Amino acid sequence: MTLELQQIRHTYPDGDRTLVALDSVDFRAAAGEFVTLTGPSGSGKSTLLAVAGGLASPESGRVLIDGTDLTELTARQRDALRAQRIGFVFQQSNLLGSLNAVDQLRLAAHVAGLPLRRAGARARDLLDRVGLSAKAERRPHQLSGGERQRVGIARALMGEPALLLVDEPTSALDHERGAAVVRLLRDLTHEAGLATVMVTHDLQYLDLADRSVRMADGRLFSEPSARTGR
Ligand code: ADP
Ligand code: MG
Question: Does residue 219 have its Cβ closer than 6 Å to ligand 1?
């Protein structure tokens, strides 16, 4: 799958003025590509993910997912495409306190409308893949921050997305656990041929990216220091 943003502009009302959160943004991420997005707080990173995932509609511009323009779909079509093709991982893992890890994933499958029959086996496969098979029956308060984030990643993959949008997954983690989560995301991206966009303010993770882009004041710049390709 390929994600392509073309000339995106997105604004928020700001008193009697308008705040331009995304300004003429062009961006592309291809299957199997792990792209990091950095930039100061307030530069528009989370807004870019929201627009890319169809959670927010841009004021102008095109959001193409394998050539389908999200902005031209009805809300219902957009929701369906999101459920089938897009996974999200947020800063907080947003797990439900009462459910153990495997049930968090089974619930996600249910919400996404996937057949429950296969969901249990797939949930266990994914927990194994993120290194948590021994902790599948644990509830969030019985897991560390890094482990909770791994459950969140496994949950995002339950629907077999082609595009993974990740917003500051390491901000609550120490360096070692943060780096392990980023390496996991990179490896899953390459293995499953995902297109992954990860927002981070931590420059140490750029080395792990196939490509890095940077935002400032709603504009996107490519990062010349990042290695290209892999
Ligand atoms: P980042 O993720 O890089 O910190 P955001 O995309 O969250 O940046 O925000 C970009 C700009 O848009 C900021 O100035 C922020 O205050 C503003 N903003 C974000 N969300 C909203 C909103 N829902 N309403 C109004 N302004 C917003
Ligand atoms: Mg943000």
Answer: no
The answer on pLDDT for 228 being more than 50 is no
**Full set of structural domains in the chain with CATH:** 3-222 (3.40.50.300)
How far lies 107's CA from each of 59, 94, 97, 111, 164, in Å?
A: 34, 13, 13, 6, 19
Rounded mean pLDDT of 175-196? 94
Q: Is 12 in the pocket of ligand 1 (CB under 6 A)?
A: yes
Asked whether the predicted pLDDT for residue 17 surpasses 90, the reply is yes
CA angle 35, 13, 25 (to 5 degrees): 25
Q: Is the CB of 170 under 6 A from ligand 1?
A: no
pLDDT at position 202, please? 87
* Burial 46-74, CB ≥16 within 10 A → b, else e: bbbbbbbbbebebbebebbbeeeebbebe
What are residue 29's DSSP bridge partners?
Answer: 3
CA 25 to chain centre: 18
* Rounded alpha-carbon distances, angstroms, from residue 20 to 7, 11, 17, 37: 13, 4, 10, 18
pLDDT > 90? residue 58: yes
Type of residue found at 37: L
